[in-house]
Amino acid sequence: MTHRRLTVLDPAVLAGTRKPGSVGLDEDDHFRDQCGVFAVYGHSEAANIAYLGLHALQHRGQESAGIVTSDGEQLYAHRAMGLVQDAFSAEQLQKLPGRSAIGHVRYSTAGGSHLRNAQPFAVDYAKGSLAVCHNGNLTNADEVRAELESHGSIFSSTSDTEVLVHLVARSKEVAFEDRVVDALSRVQGAYSLLFLADDTIVAARDPRGIRPLCLGILPSRKDAHVVASEPISFDLIGAEYVRDVEPGEMLVIDASGVRSMRLPANETPQSCVFEYVYFARPDSHLAGRSVYEVRKELGRTLSRESPIDADVVIPVPDSGVPSAIGYATERGIPFEMGLIRSHYVGRTFIEPQQSIRHFGVRLKLNPVESIIRGKRVVVVDDSIVRGTTSRKIIKMVRDAGAREVHLRISSPPTQWPCYYGIDTPTRRELIASSHSIEEIARYVTADSLGYLSLEGMIAAVSNAGGDKAPSVPPDHFCHACFSGQYAIPFSPSTRRQMRLVGV
C-alpha cells in the first residue's frame, strides 16, 4: 500500500515500509497485511458506522486509522496514529457529518509510520473534492510518480495511493467514475480501492482480485450500502453480506443505487492465499468459504502430510488455533491450549535492565506447564518468517518440561517477499530462502519440523467447505511468497532493485 522512491537496496523499503536494517516493532515475527478499508453510503450516522466497521477490521492494520465523510457538498476528515478506538472520540465523530464515509486502518513498520501516510487522503481539486483509501500495492507507482512530478505534481506523502489522487485530478474525463477508470488504466498492481466524491462512492478491485473486497446492505435502510475488506465488519453493524466485489469490477454507489462496471483489463483471478492462512479473521468468509473451516482443513492436510506420534497438540495462538484443531482431530491426538496469549500487549514495552529469558515472547505467550510437562508436544503455527520467534517458543515449551517438541507449519516455507500489499522482510531475512527444512529445525531447536506442501495448501483452500462453497481452480490463487511466481509484472525500477538484492 506504500511505495517509496528508493535510494536504498531493501525491497521492503521499496514498499515504503521499513528503514534499512530494521526488523519492525512487533515481536511475533509474522507477516502483516498493511490495511483494511470500509465504506458506507446513505446512512445518517455514517461516521459512527465507519468507526464500527473499522473496529472490526482492526486486525488488518493497527498503526493508524482515518475516516472521511461527505454531506454532499464538502468532505470532512480525521486521521490519527494508533488503534481505531484511540484515534476517534465521540466528539471527533460528531465533527464528521454526512451520510457517506470511507475509512481505513493501516499497518506499517518503522520506515512508514507517519501521520502523513495515514489514509484516507482527502483533497480539493478543480472538479470538486476527492478522498481515497487503498489496500494493496501499485507495482509501477515509482514510474507514474516520476512522470507526474516531471509535469509539476507535488506529493505530500510517500504512499503510492497518492499517485491515484493526482491521476484522477488530471484526468480529462467528465464523470467522476470515468476519471477513476482513467486513473486505474495507468496503474498496475494489487488494489482494493475506495473513492469518495461529494455524492458518490466508487469501490474498485484489481483485475486479479489479489486483495479482498465485498458489498453489503443495511436491511433497516435499503438505500444504505456498505463495502469492506472482509464481511466480518458487516456483523458488527447489522449489515447483510450481498456478494464479493469481483476481480476487475468497479461499483458506483450514489443516489440511484449501485451500478457495476468492468475495468478494461481481463486477467485470471489470483486472490492472495495467505488471506486464508493468516490475514483474515477466522470468523470471516472469503469467496464464500469460512476462513475458520479452511484453516482446520489446512491442519488436517498437514497432519496427513507430516504425521508424528505425540501426546498433545498445542497451537501458537491465535492464528494457529484452527489448524491445530484440524491436526489433532485428524491424528486422534488431544488438543490443548498449552500456550496462553496476553491480549494486553502494545507495540512497545519497557524491558528491565536485568535480562529476563524469552522476555519479548513471554509478554505475549506463556506455557501451561501442567499440559506440557513430560509430554511429546506438537506445536502448530501458521508460518515461519525469520525463525527467531519459533526458536524462543520451542525453548519456552522445553523449559516447561516437554519431553519432545515437534513443530508443524500450516503453510509452505515462505521464501519470497510480497509486493502486493503485505509487509514482508527482505528475501535474505526469510530463513526458508537460504536454509533447508533440516537446517531450520536445528535452528529453532525442534525435534522435527514439517511444513504443509504448496499443493496441499492450495487443495485445502480450494476444496474446504465441501458442497457449501464452490471449488476454486488451483491457478486462481497468488502464492508468490511461497513459490516466487509473481502474478503481476514489475516495473523496470523495481526489477533493478530486485536484482541488486538478489531476489
Nutshell version of this structure?
29% of the residues lie in helices and 24% in strands. The protein is an alpha+beta fold and 503 residues long. It has 2 domains: 11-270, Glutamine Phosphoribosylpyrophosphate, subunit 1, domain 1 (4-Layer Sandwich), CATH 3.60.20; 289-342 and 364-460, Rossmann fold, CATH 3.40.50.2020.
Describe the fold and architecture.
The strands form seven sheets. Strands 4-3-5-2-11-10-12 form a seven-stranded antiparallel sheet. The protein has a six-stranded antiparallel sheet with strand order 6-7-8-9-13-14, with helices on one face. Mean pLDDT is 87; it is low at 1-27. It has two domains: 11-270, Glutamine Phosphoribosylpyrophosphate, subunit 1, domain 1 (4-Layer Sandwich); 289-342 and 364-460, 3-Layer(aba) Sandwich (Rossmann fold), CATH 3.40.50.2020. The protein contains 18 helices and 25 strands. Helix 6 (161-170) crosses helix 7 (176-184), helix 10 (291-305) packs across helix 11 and helix 10 (291-305) packs antiparallel against helix 16. By secondary structure, the chain is α+β, with helices and mostly antiparallel strands.
